[in-house]
Structures are given as structure tokens and as C-alpha cells.
Design brief:
single chain; six-stranded mixed β-sheet; alpha+beta; 17% strand; 35 strands; 41% helix
Length: 990
């Protein structure tokens, strides 16, 4: 009797009609072409933009690197995975034993066999795309690995130059990750092919795997284990970033347990890899699997359990002693990496604060008292808008800025803002495409208010104002047009020859842009690309776009522009405008940082968390990304010309803090960053110490001012950043503040500084005061005034509590916070100013009508505390004068009207002010002679004349006349103010 072979199961039909195939191919081809076209349009538009700003070398360098890396890793991935899949197919057995398993597989073999080349090609393309795309995303790693130089500093454990960890280690890790990924998929897919072709037979009687398949997979397992051995060796160096202990870096358990464990595992992996390779000539197929399992178990026991046991049973009972050596390493590395080395970057001075100081230190002539800022740039943007918007299409950013200018030999700090075109203000016909993009194309003007002068109640006191511009900057600001800024539309069409049509401050004034910035629209292909990019047919249909000389300005936010031309930098969240006396243009200053996260032993922190404060929480400044860093340098100062769009990057502060990271990028992109020596003096005069960097450093100083590792471990002398005491912002960190004041160690020359108090950990008492110089001659000199632990000194939150619980002050607050929400109190920045042998706290109070359209904050009161003395008045002069008296005024009226109602519209220049004009200093100790017999009406009339004199003095820019007018106003204010009430205590609380 003859045996009939078993019948094969029927094969599913895969045939498609020719028409269906054509339709499918066309659809797929269109989808692919659209995706490619969209990507290429974006690349082309970027190519045009980089060319317009003069940084096409950056674009080409990055693009070339990404393409090269993509090709290299795509080819490697395709060859490794595709080659092994092809090898597995070629190793198929010529005969397969009959079994149900093989019969079931036969249908799939018959499906694949006619299309094997197509399947293999598709697989290789897919693997190539995955490998290439994942690798090219790390273009920074590959560039730095190629061009990075030495740091000149070695780590304390392995004594390797920091460059190994900065450039080499990340590149080796990236290569290992790629190797593991490709070998893993090669094993997986090769095993699948071997199973499909019958070389692996799970359910078939007899041998389960052919000799060729076993050897093939054994070699792949050998390569995988060899890569694991390399990974174990690299893991040894990765211990310098360990987080096992209290701080970042190799701890006691890492050095004495994990490090030997990694070394042992390295040798075990080498032995196992050799054993696996030797198994090629053995008959057993189980040895590679057994070896892999053994390695996995040993890695858990030796690499995980053993170090954890040492940490738990040896380190924890004696942690402060055993970790001391490694904490010392962390302290030293963290100070170096964050630029807070004691004695080099930071000077610590003991500040013996007197709780009951003499007010004789509050000398009106001192640089600190004469320049106290009463305008809060974070609160008065609405005031600038209401008083200086002039035209509805303009506006100011939510947060204004503080900068200093020297006029007539006198340096003063000013609240400044650029009057930008605010696209959100366009209404009606103004917002149609033609007007929005071809008429309303730019902002106009620069507004400045003396920081110690109350402009909120008198718009005539601005130092630079109006359209056309008037004020003390007129000689410097020759072209106030602002085509590049923070509020402008996403793009504008400018420069078209013919009749000028670009709105320039008034309907009667139209201009044609000739600043040299922007991308030419002369090419139809360019217009087509932009039509696709912005999904706007007007680029092809509107005559203004195709007109001779027409250009498009886009991507014109200063912060965005610097980030784009220097993608290797982290950009500060607060660009600020200034007037460049050389060009006559408004310029934007943007600070750039180099960062990394692999500086050995340096504390790893969240960039976003370190820079979080009231301003980022309220989105007044841009938040930083949630990246982990442990090294930062402010190595670049960038300027963006608000008219031409020219971006210039200047190397910065390399003499004091050399930066190997920037040096590497300057080798990669030669000529991109200019030497600091080329920075014009007109730009140098306006550099500031950046706020984000200062916030990072103050947070680290809070812990790393401690030298003793045991004290550090026990958190025995930790400082923290105080919370913003304003009721509207409680919970967020208080931001640092720019002030013009005497240097922290004394002196008569005012210094522009960035400052912040620090409080005792988990308490509100003041622990220290940090200040850093912004002036070019002393830039970066950071001083920390430390309060002795035996002293109990009020911190910002305690000062705010004193204000909010004082019976006189709370009575006014109740009046200002009108019932029914008619008005609300806005707390200004609480400044901390060291002077004499104590600290002076000053806080302005603003009031804003809550329900009125067009309302804006106006200054109504100024609060002051000096030691145990409270000062309170309608302006700074009276608040400081009140510090020296035993009583504080009750129901103080506003001179001129007696009203406490907040303004809702800008006061006219002829109307009397709604509050007494502030003075930058308290009045002299001797009383002023009475004016015209002391009659109140006469005093008010003379005050009106004094204001007119001050306005005229500001218009002429004569500092002598300004000083005389301010002195006269101060004198008249003193004569006007009347009765005082009981002075409450400001005794420090524990």
C-alpha cells in the first residue's frame, strides 16, 4: 500500500487587478511626494532665512553633518540587519522533514519566495531609515566628538581630562546604543527567517536547529555579549554621574562596590563571549542561551544587589563620614562647572546686621539712596501702554526691562520698552491680509522712564516718549523703526518700490523699508514655496508681493533668531532692548549659554526648575526647557538690530571663565562668533548679567557655599530662595532684581547690579544677600553678604507680613481694594538694599481700577523698612523721611486732589498730579523754609510750576536743571505733608 503525501492547505489569493494596482501605486506615490515636498519646502525656506541673516554656513554645516551621519548609520543598519537576514535565507536547508509545523509554514514560504527581493529591499530601507534618523538627531554629539578640545582639568577618580566625558563618552554611548539595537534586530529577524525556512524546528521531531543556523545565531549572540562587555567597561566611567549617594558623582558605594563589580562583570562578559564563540564547534545549541542567562543573573547580583547591600548596611549607618571624601569632590566640581568657585568667582563677606540701625546711614547723596527704583518693570507695562501707546496698533511686552544710561555724565537706571507693532491690537480693516502684512509692518519708538520717578501719575516725566520721539535719547536714536521684535506679526511684506505704504507712526507718514534685512520675493519659486509654507495664495496673487524690491521678513523674534542661528546655545528667557548710540537704532540684547550634563561629579539639576520664578510662572519671561544640566557658561552676548535684523554673536567673558564648549563650536563654525574685542563700546555699555544664569547660580550657592562635607551632608547651613511675597504670586520663587546702587563692599560710584536675598532653610529669616556686577569693568564680580547665624534678621516674606499686618497700612489697603472689585492693589518688587549696618527694604504699592477699560497701575504708596523702623508715605521721599520719626501718617491724602482713586486714563499735562512726585532721596535733615507763608494753595501752585520746570529740564537733557527741579519738588512736598500717626514696631521675628 503506497502512502499519499498530505495535501497542502489552499493558498489565499493575493491577485489584484491591474487598475487597482495602478491606483494604489499612484496614491502611495502622491503621499510620498507630498511628504517629501513639504519637508523640502521647509528646508528651502530655512535656506533663504539663514542667507538673509548671514548665517548660511551654520545651516549648511548642520545639514551636511546630519546627512553624512544619516547615510553612515543608515548604511550600517541596512548592511547589518539586511545582511544577516539574507544570510539566514541562504542557509536554508535543502530538505525539510515532513511535519504539521512545516506544512503550516509552507504557505508563508510560498507567499514570500516570489517576492523575496522586494521584501528584503523594503526591510533594509525601513531599517536604514530608523537607524539613520535616530543617529542624525544627535548631530551635536558627533560634531563635538570630532572637534572638541581639552578642558585642562581631570576628574578625581579616573584622572581623565573632562573632555573625555564631554565629547568621547557620549559618542561611545551613542555607538553602543546603535550597536545593541541593530544586533538585537538582526538576532530577532534572523531567527524568524531561520524558522520560516525550516532551519529552526520547534515542533518537528529530531534536531531542533541546523548547524549553519546555530552557528549564525551563535556569532550574533557573541557580538551582543562582546558589546555588553564594552558597555560594562564604559559603565565604570559613568559612575562619575551616579545618583546613588546624596549628591551627583561616584559615592562610597560606587567606588568600593559598583566599580569593582563593573570590572568583574566586564571580565565575566569577555569569558562568556569567548565561550559562546567556542560553542560554534560544539554540538550543543544550549550553551549560548545558558551563557546569556548566566550573564543576566550575574549582572543583577554583582552589579545591583552587591552595591545596594554596601549602601544599605555599610554606608547609611556612617554616611556623613564615609561620604565626606566624595561630597568634597562634588562640591569642588559643582563650583567649577557652575562658575561659583569661592574666592575666584564669588567673594563671601560677613555682614553684621544691626536690628536697630541709625538712619544717619540713609544719606541722600549715597549711590544707593539716590537711585532707589520705585517703578516695577514687571507691573507697569499697562501704564506704558496707556500713556505711550499713542496709536492703537502699538503695544509693549508684558514685562518691561531695566537698563542704565549715562546722560550728561550722570548714570541713571531707566525702565525701558520698545513700542512694537502688536498684531493682537489690529482691528476691523486693519486686520485684513493686505493691511496686516504690507501696511502695519513694524513698531516705532523707544520709551524710557527714570526708574526713581513716578511717571504713573504724570506722563510728562518720561525721559524718552511720544511720536515723533522726544526726550534725552533723541541725539542717539536716529531711526526708531522696529522691524524685529517680540510682538510683531509672523511675517511682513516690505520694501516694495513705488508709493510708500508702510505705516510709520501716523497716517500721514508712510515709509519703504531699506534696512537690508528680509528675503527677496523676486523669484516665483520663492513665492510658491512661501505660499506652501504659510498656506496663503496671496503670495502668488497679490501685486504687493511681486512688486519690484519686495521682501519678506519672518522669524523675527530676537530670542528665536539667536536660537536659530546658534542652535548649540541655550538662550536666556529675557531679551531686552537698548539704544545703540553708534547705529542710531534700537537693538536687542540676548544672552546665550553653553550647557552640558556630563561634567564629572558636578550636581545635575533641572534647568527649568532652577530658573522658575514669578516671571516664568506668569509667562512674562520665557521658560527654559526641562533639560538636565550640570555645567553652564554665559559665553555669548548676541545683538539683533531691530531695523536691519542683523544678528551678531560676541564671545564673552573668556578671560575670567574660559569655555571649552564654546571653543569647540567656534572650531565647528568658524567666523560665527566674534571675539569680545570687536564688541562696540555702545553695546558694551548695555551688557547685563543674565537673570537665568544668576537664578541657577543663586540656587546652587544656597547649598554649595558650605565647605565642610559633613555640614553639607547634614544640611546644616543651607539657604533657599525666598518665595515672592506678593499675594498674587505666593508659591513662586522671588525673581532677582536689577538695581543701581553702591557696590556691596562700599564706594561712591553707583554700580548696576543684579541682586537677590536668600533665607535660612525652611525658615523665613534672612541668611544672605547675593549681588553681581553688570558693569563692564567689574562684570561678573559676585559678592555674597552672609548674615551670622547668631543674628535673626527679617527676610522678604516677614517684611511683607509686617506691611500686611500694620494697622495704618492695612487701613489704606482696605480703601484701595475697593468693595465690589472697583480697584485692586498691586504689590511692586520688594527690593532688598544693604546700606550702613543694616538692610533697607523698599516696596511700591500700585492701584488699578479693575473694571474700567483702559485702566492701568498708578503708584499710590511706598513702603520702607530699615531695621526695626517702618516708613510709609505717598512717595519714596516721605517713606524714607518717616523712618526717622516716631509716628506714621494716618489717612495720607494724595497731594493735589486728596483722592486715592486709581487713574483710568492718562492724566493731562496741565492737571495736577494725583500723588506727590517721588524723589530719589529723602529730604535734608534741616527743614525747608516755608513757601509764600506756608499757604497750601500757594504750595500746590508752586508745585505745578516745579513740575513744568522738571518737564522742560528732561526735554533739554540738562542734568543740572533736572537736579534743581527735583530738589524744588522735594522741598515743596515736605512742606505739604501733614500729621503722622503712631509708629509700629518692626522687630525681627524668629
Amino acid at each position: 500500500m503506497t502512502m499519499r503525501p498530505p495535501m497542502r492547505p489552499p493558498m489565499p489569493s493575493l491577485s489584484l487587478s491591474r487598475r487597482t494596482k495602478v491606483i494604489l501605486l499612484v496614491v502611495v506615490a502622491l503621499i510620498v511626494l507630498l511628504a517629501i515636498a513639504s519637508a523640502l519646502v521647509g528646508v528651502y525656506v530655512d535656506w533663504l532665512w539663514f542667507g538673509a541673516v548671514g548665517y548660511r554656513n551654520v545651516f549648511k554645516g548642520i545639514l551636511a553633518t546630519r546627512v553624512i551621519v544619516f547615510v553612515i548609520f543608515a548604511v550600517l543598519a541596512a548592511l547589518i540587519v539586511g545582511g544577516n537576514v539574507a544570510a539566514a535565507y541562504l542557509m536554508r536547508p535543502p530538505f525539510r522533514p515532513l511535519s504539521g509545523e512545516q506544512q503550516n509554514l509552507e504557505r508563508y514560504r510560498l507567499m514570500v519566495e516570489p517576492r523575496k527581493k522586494l521584501v528584503l529591499s523594503g526591510l533594509m530601507v525601513l531599517v536604514a531609515l530608523i537607524g539613520g534618523l535616530s543617529a542624525q538627531g544627535g548631530w551635536r554629539v558627533w560634531m563635538l566628538w570630532r572637534f572638541g578640545g581639552s578642558f585642562g582639568v581631570t576628574d578625581p577618580q579616573f584622572h581623565k581630562d573632562i573632555s573625555f566625558y564631554a565629547w568621547d563618552y557620549p559618542a561611545y554611548r551613542a555607538m553602543l546604543s546603535f550597536g545593541f539595537g541593530t544586533i538585537f534586530f538582526a538576532i530577532l529577524l534572523s531567527a524568524a527567517v531561520h524558522y520560516l525556512v525550516g532551519a529552526i524546528r520547534v515542533q518537528t521531531p529530531g534536531p531542533k536547529i541546523t548547524l549553519s543556523a546555530r552557528r549564525h545565531l551563535t556569532i550574533l549572540v557573541f557580538v551582543f555579549i562582546a558589546l555588553k562587555a564594552v558597555a560594562y567597561w564604559l559603565d565604570r566611567y559613568g559612575l562619575v554621574f551616579s545618583s546613588r549617594g546624596r549628591v551627583t558623582g561616584a559615592s562610597y558605594a560606587d567606588v568600593n562596590a559598583a566599580l569593582p563589580a563593573k570590572t568583574i562583570l566586564f571580565w565575566i562578559a569577555i569569558v562568556i563571549a569567548a565561550t559562546v564563540l567556542a560553542s560554534i564547534w560544539l554540538k550543543s545549541a544550549q550553551l549560548p542561551v545558558i551563557s546569556f542567562v548566566v550573564l543576566l543573573i550575574l549582572s543583577i547580583v554583582i552589579g545591583g544587589v552587591y552595591p545596594a547591600a554596601i549602601q544599605q548596611f555599610s554606608v547609611k549607618p556612617n554616611a556623613s563620614a564615609k561620604e565626606a571624601k566624595y561630597i568634597s569632590r562634588n562640591i569642588q566640581a559643582t563650583r567649577q562647572a557652575y562658575g561659583i568657585v569661592s574666592g575666584t568667582d564669588v567673594d563671601y563677606e560677613t555682614y553684621n546686621v544691626a536690628n536697630s540701625p541709625s538712619i544717619t546711614a540713609l544719606d541722600p547723596a549715597s549711590p544707593t539712596i539716590s537711585d532707589i527704583r520705585i517703578l516695577d518693570p514687571n507691573q507697569i507695562s499697562a501704564t506704558f501702554t496707556q500713556q505711550q501707546q499713542i496709536r492703537n496698533v502699538y503695544g509693549f511686552s508684558n514685562k518691561l526691562d531695566v537698563d542704565r544710561y549715562t546722560i550728561g555724565g550722570q548714570t541713571k537706571d531707566y525702565i525701558v520698552g520698545a513700542r512694537e507693532l502688536d498684531a493682537s491690537n489690529l482691528s476691523g480693516d486693519q486686520s485684513n491680509w493686505i493691511n496686516q502684512h504690507t501696511v502695519y509692518t513694524h513698531g516705532f519708538g523707544f520709551v524710557a522712564a527714570p526708574a526713581d520717578v513716578d511717571v504713573t501719575n504724570n506722563k510728562d516725566l518720561y525721559a524718552e516718549k511720544n511720536i515723533p520721539p522726544t526726550g534725552i535719547f533723541n541725539d542717539m536714536l536716529t531711526n526708531p523703526a522696529i522691524y524685529y521684535g517680540e510682538l510683531l506679526p509672523d511675517y511682513s511684506i516690505v520694501g516694495a518700490k513705488g508709493v510708500p505704504q508702510e505705516y510709520n507712526g501716523s497716517d500721514a507718514t508712510k515709509i519703504t523699508y531699506d534696512g537690508g534685512g528680509g528675503v527677496s520675493l523676486g523669484s516665483f519659486f520663492t513665492r510658491l514655496a512661501l505660499a506652501v509654507q504659510y498656506k496663503q495664495l496671496n503670495f502668488l496673487l497679490n501685486s504687493a508681493v511681486s512688486a519690484d524690491g519686495a521682501k519678506i521678513i519672518f522669524d523675527r523674534d530676537p530670542r528665536q533668531m539667536v536660537q536659530k542661528v546658534a542652535p548649540f546655545l541655550t538662550v536666556d528667557g529675557d531679551p531686552y532692548p537698548f539704544v545703540d548710540a553708534d547705529t542710531g537704532h534700537v537693538m536687542w540684547m540676548v544672552d546665550g549659554y553653553t550647557t552640558m550634563s556630563n561634567y564629572p561629579y558636578s550636581e545635575q539639576e533641572s534647568l527649568s526648575a532652577l530658573t522658575s520664578d514669578t516671571l516664568t510662572e506668569t509667562q512674562q519671561t520665557a521658560s527654559q526647557p526641562n533639560d538636565t544640566i550640570n555645567y553652564i557658561r554665559n559665553s555669548v552676548k548676541a545683538t539683533v538690530d531691530a531695523y536691519t535684523g542683523q544678528v551678531t554673536l560676541y564671545q564673552w567673558n573668556q578671560d575670567q571663565q574660559p569655555d571649552p564648549v564654546l571653543a569647540a563650536w567656534m572650531k565647528i563654525f568658524p567666523g560665527t562668533v566674534q571675539p569680545q574685542s570687536t564688541m562696540p563700546q555702545a553695546v558694551l555699555d548695555h551688557v547685563r548679567y543674565p537673570q537665568d544664569l544668576f537664578e541657577i547660580q543663586r540656587a546652587l550657592i544656597g547649598s554649595y557655599h558650605v565647605d565642610n562635607p559633613v555640614t553639607f551632608y547634614n544640611v546644616g547651613d543651607r539657604w533657599t530662595v525666598p518665595k515672592d511675597p506678593s499675594p498674587a504670586n505666593q508659591g513662586a520663587n522671588q525673581p532677582p532684581y536689577y538695581v543701581l546702587a553702591a557696590p556691596p563692599t562700599g564706594g561712591l560710584t553707583p554700580q548696576f547690579q543684579l541682586t537677590s536675598p536668600m533665607i535660612v532653610n525652611q525658615r523665613n529669616n534672612l541668611a544672605a544677600f547675593i549681588t553681581v556686577s553688570c558693569d563692564p569693568a567689574t562684570y561678573g564680580q559676585m559678592t555674597v553678604l552672609t548674615i551670622p547665624q547668631s543674628k535673626v534678621t527679617n527676610g522678604p516674606e516677614q517684611i511683607a507680613n509686617i506691611f500686611n499686618t500694620n494697622s495704618v497700612i492695612t487701613k489704606d489697603l482696605s480703601l484701595f481694594n475697593a468693595p465690589g472689585g472697583g480697584s485692586t492693589v498691586i504689590y511692586g518688587n520688594l527690593l532688598t538694599l544693604p546700606i550702613g549696618d543694616s538692610l533697607l527694604y523698599v516696596e511700591p504699592l500700585y492701584v488699578r481700577a479693575a473694571a474700567e477699560a483702559g485702566s492701568f497701575p498708578t503708584l499710590q504708596r511706598v513702603l520702607a523698612v530699615y531695621g526695626d523702623k517702618i516708613g510709609y508715605g505717598p512717595d519714596l521721599a516721605n517713606a524714607l523721611e518717616n523712618l526717622g520719626q516716631s509716628t506714621v501718617g494716618l489717612n495720607i491724602p494724595n497731594p493735589g486732589t486728596g483722592s486715592t482713586t486709581p487713574a483710568t486714563t492718562a492724566p493731562s499735562s496741565s492737571a495736577p498730579p494725583t500723588s506727590a512726585p517721588p524723589s530719589s532721596a529723602p529730604p535734608p535733615a534741616s527743614s525747608a523754609p516755608p513757601a509764600s507763608g506756608g499757604d497750601v494753595d500757594t504750595i500746590l501752585n508752586e508745585m505745578d510750576q516745579a513740575f513744568a520746570d522738571l518737564q522742560a529740564a528732561y526735554a533739554t537733557g540738562d542734568p543740572v536743571a533736572v537736579g534743581q527741579a527735583e530738589a524744588r519738588i522735594k522741598q515743596l512736598t515736605e512742606q505739604y505733608l501733614q500729621a503722622r500717626g503712631q509708629l509700629p514696631s518692626a522687630t525681627p521675628t524668629g
